[in-house]
Design goal:
By secondary structure, the protein is α/β, with parallel strands linked by helices. 32% of the residues lie in helices and 24% in strands. Helix 3 crosses helix 4.
Length: 198
């Protein structure tokens, strides 16, 4: 089965793991991933933030890597993409202010294409007005916001139709596995792995 063409929304101070890990993992299994940011071009970089969970009432934030974009947001036609990834961090709080970002998100929901959102990423979905009737999760502090947007919030990685949601980067194994399933991705371990299992 050929790989899918996936759009990934980034911005300055996107959460480091939540942008880097899906970007690399989805390519690793054969998908084409275009990482974009409003007002930035392919080759530009977004600064990232690492959100760490150390038992405090909220996360601790430190400076992460510089994440290189590989496509230009202004050139994006959502109709050319099969799926969307919306990472968290601090970027969603201002990316939701771009009408073009909200229109892009609405396209994926209107067409029932797979969407994976994690942590604060659902802030963009709430602003786009696409969450009504969904069961989903997010970073717990975002729960009131997404519930006001019409969803039912649950405390675990959730798949509801085309939408796959997780709370934060510790959910990556389950969240990405669920997204790959919704994408219809089949992973073969090859003859060497099969022989090792015998």
């Amino acid at each position: 089965m050929p790989g899918k063409k996936i759009l990934l929304l980034a911005g300055d101070f996107v959460e480091d793991y939540e942008v880097m890990v899906p970007f690399q993992a989805l390519q690793m299994v054969g998908h084409e991933v275009h990482a974009v940011c409003p007002e930035k071009d392919a080759g530009d970089r977004c600064k990232t933030a690492v959100h760490d969970f150390r038992g405090d009432q909220t996360y601790l934030e430190t400076r992460g890597h510089d994440f290189a974009l590989n496509a230009t947001f202004a050139d994006v036609d959502p109709a050319e993409y099969d799926a969307l990834v919306v990472p968290g961090g601090r970027a969603p709080e201002y990316l939701r202010g771009y009408d073009d970002v909200l229109d892009t998100v609405r396209h994926f929901f209107d067409e029932k294409k797979p969407v994976a959102a994690i942590c604060h990423g659902p802030q963009i979905l709430a602003a786009a007005g696409v969450l009504d009737g969904y069961e989903m999760t997010s970073y717990p502090a975002v729960q009131p916001e997404v519930e006001r947007a019409g969803c039912t919030w649950v405390d675990e990685v959730t798949v509801d139709g085309n939408l796959v949601t997780g709370q934060a980067w510790p959910d990556h194994p389950e969240w990405l596995a669920a997204f790959l399933d919704v994408l219809g991705t089949e992973i073969s371990h090859g003859p060497a792995a099969a022989a090792a299992d015998d």
